Amino acid sequence: MDLAAYLSERTARINAALERLVPPETQPPAVIHKAMRYSLFAGGKRVRPILAIAAAEAVGGPCPGIDQAACTLELIHTYSLIHDDLPALDNDDLRRGRPTNHKVFGDAMAILAGDALLTLAFQVLAECRAISGDSRIRLIEELSIAAGTVGGMIAGQVFDIEGEKQAPNAQILDSIHRAKTGALLSASVRMGAIYAGATTEVLEALSRYGAHIGLAFQIVDDILDSTQTAEQLGKTPGKDAAQNKITFPAVYGLENSRAMAKHELAAAGAALDGMGDSADPLRAIAHMIVHREA
After folding, report:
1. 194: nearest Cα among 209, 182, 207
2. What pTM does this model have?
3. Residue 227 confidence (pLDDT) above 90
């Protein structure tokens, strides 16, 4: 398949939907909407919403209204990046090749912009009228858990902060990244499948795929942080080592980390063995995640 064309078309759809869903910069209070849009439209790859769309299509073909539900994943992801860059957390000056949100709007407005994107995500999900109320509740539950404190994104951030004071080890590393990065990526696949009405068996297969690509994504992210430049990454490289972060290269070394990423790719592909050509975009996205250079 032509993955570049697939990603380009879905990215355009997601950007158009986000444009509709997020208040314009002219909407009072203007400064908060400018801050939200500054980070949201900074050129992200839209991996999470595209995964949701691809999973829905793998289950049952095109799904009316899926773009709106998928956008909630990008809202949550962007909120997490804004907060992650704050001085109290990772204290970064660069994100997606631009000054971070707090560098432009100040700490207070960056915190509020993240809060606003998080809040908007659940409003958007609640207003997905193309599916039943029961399905909307399931999607809200999935997103809440993935972003939350029990095995979700916030839990991963807490483990990450606590890990800075500890010697690198595999157990802590696993707890950090399955929650901090893996939970939202896995939820992206699950939400698309749920939206499309997947059977229990198909949902379980796609959940396995999501878990493997979530782990692969973070392994590669850690490798790139230690090997790429700021121009390549669009963010400050080497910060993990500078802040004593527990990463895959720190625990396993670079070569073993690369081998682990390839293993997760193979496992992700195996999870889709029972699915046909409709799952080809998911297979191609998994390859892209592991072989990307930024």
Report:
1. 207
2. 0.94
3. no
